[in-house]
Amino acid sequence: MTTINPSECIFCRILNGRAPGSFVYQDDFTAAFMDIRQPVPYRVLVVPRAHVETVYDLDAAQAEALFRTTVQVARAVKAASGCEGLNLFQNNGPLAGQDVPHVHMHILPRYPGDALQPSLKSFAQAMGLPMPDRAELDRMAAELRASLA
Ligand SMILES: [Zn+2]
């Protein structure tokens, strides 16, 4: 895992006022700001204030706060944007497309006719990945349940 000095992290710099950020929400544990990349309007990032690199590194309180804030902001995005759908996602590690090593939730409103991949299925198709059938999905779900028990 890449370890970065928090003073060099662009999201830490935004959180500490050392880089510009258009904040949507702030509390003691989390903050939300507009994503500099807006493939569609109202795309927002939600981050923990602490420099935490991936979802694996969040403690329970950080995880709860991050998701609570994400839900609150998602409602606000939906109301503000008039979007007809909304994706929540986040990436862990460079192979998953994490380009800033500070865990962040993406709130991505969806609009009729937007050029983004409309679903995980079409993303997988675009990547040439076979979609698993129901039995395979059930097997994976059971495996995950067992590991959580
Ligand atoms: Zn950071």
- Number-wise, the strands total 5
Low-confidence stretches: none
Average pLDDT figure: 88
Quickly give the structural class: alpha+beta
Record keyword descriptors for this entry.
149 residues; alpha+beta; five-stranded antiparallel beta sheet; 4 helices; 34% helix; binds zinc ion
What would you note in describing this structure?
There is one protein chain. The two termini are 28 Å apart. The protein has a single domain, classed as HIT family, subunit A (2-Layer Sandwich). It has a 5-stranded antiparallel β-sheet with strand order 1-2-3-5-4, with helices on one face. By secondary structure, it is α+β, with helices and mostly antiparallel strands. Helix content is 34%, strand content 17%. β1 and β2 form a beta hairpin. Residues 6, 9, 11-12, 51, 102 line the site of zinc ion (ZN).
What is the gist of this entry?
With 149 residues, the chain is of the alpha+beta class. It has helices spanning 10-15, 60-81, 120-126, 134-148, and strands at residues 23-26, 30-34, 44-48, 85-89, 105-110.
What's the topology here?
Blueprint: H1 10-15, E1 23-26, E2 30-34, E3 44-48, H2 60-81, E4 85-89, E5 105-110, H3 120-126, H4 134-148
Antiparallel strand pairs: 1-2, 2-3, 3-5, 4-5
Residues 6, 9, 11-12, 51, 102 line the site of zinc ion (ZN).
